[in-house]
Known about the structure:
Elements: H1 6-17, H2 34-49, E1 53-56, E2 62-66, E3 77-81, H3 95-110, E4 119-123, H4 137-142, H5 148-152, H6 162-168, E5 184-190, H7 195-199, E6 203-209, E7 211-220, E8 224-225, H8 237-254, E9 260-262, E10 266-269, E11 275-276, E12 279-288, H9 291-310, E13 314-323, E14 326-327, H10 330-342, E15 347-352, H11 357-361, E16 367-372, H12 388-406
Parallel strand pairs: 3-4, 3-5, 5-16, 6-15
Antiparallel strand pairs: 1-2, 2-4, 6-14, 6-16, 7-12, 7-13, 8-11, 9-12, 10-12
The structure holds (2S)-amino(hydroxy)ethanoic acid and manganese (II) ion (MN) (2 copies).
Amino acid sequence: MIAVDAQRLVGRIRELGAVGRDGEGRLTRLAASDTDRQGRDLFLGWLRQAGLDVAIDRIGNIFGIWQSAGNAGEAPLLIGSHIDTVIDAGIYDGCYGVLAGLEVIETLKASGFPPARPLAVAAFTNEEGVRFSPDMMGSLVHAGGVDVEAALAAVGTDGSTLGQELARIGYAGEREPGFLKPHLYVELHIEQGPLLEREGIPIGAVETLQGISWQRITLDGVANHAGTTPMSMRCDAGYAAARVVTFLHDLAAASNAPTVATVGTMRFEPNAINVIPSRAVFTVDLRDPDEQRLQAQEASLAAFLEQLAAEGITVSVERLARFEPVVFDRQVVELIEAAARKRGLASRRMTSGAGHDAQMIARMAPAAMIFVPSAGGISHSPHEYTEDAELVAGANILLDVVAELAALKG
Ligand code: HGY
Ligand code: MN
Ligand code: MN
């Protein structure tokens, strides 16, 4: 059986993983930052070395396309993911899927495989959403889920706009988003959770992806002296924020469902040791595979905020992202399982807890995902790790699925 070049794939994952490290060795390549540009430049060089046609669209999505005279008119088979990262990130999230996609195309190209349609690999802009909301932004624009002008006008946590920053790093491309209409989309990704490792299963055939709700909440109270203000006379925005954090944790933990709730960022004003906070600004990340339950949790949070308002806190809520749960294409999921069986690998059906570009491209084409195990279920952390053999196994499953889907029929 044809196989990927394991050394080239793992070597590139490590090489890209070395790009964007700070003085303490922490890896951060936030969307449209200077370090993101360095990662993009490296990936672009590999696309060109592989002899692929390169296209960059107005939201900075990068595409490497292998097409021949015999199939140029056909809709491409698209493999994708992202190479932007969170803060103090691991080296596999997103990058593994993009580099495995390139590896699969290079392997098939070198083998003389005659694809019935063009094969393309994409690195989508701003999948992580840490600097600019919402997450999965580049693929969302590609799928027509948000207007490119609105996305380019997105204001980042540092006050810049995505459009300005893409232009500054030289990745404000020419192509109109959505110019490439995929026949089908497959994404290979680390699980970022504990299931595959715990069950000793090397391949995940991802059939669904949970709903995601992101909000930014601002609570306004009254600044006052920390020493002279009696507890009964305080309107403490910091205390109110802490009650929201506890409320959300208890809401998710109490539900006998896979609901998860996270307050990942918080800041106080005036942020002084001896001043009762007048303002607390924080983000809420709520997720659930069931849309009705997710709506119910959002309603519970809104009711709790109303209670705080009744106590004198001024509440304002900004919607940052809201995506319903997604069901992937059953036939592609079955192909992934069949490919695993053929290579003697166990697989299991899964729901993705994390958001992925696949959930956006599923709006425009049949899509599915392949997972490989994450050590300790850890991700969005420098301790993110997947064994080389597991990375290569996943890439070979992607290779087989792509070869099967792109084979000349009849
Ligand atoms: O937030 C997510 O799940 C993804 O990593 N952007
Ligand atoms: Mn990812
Ligand atoms: Mn991620």
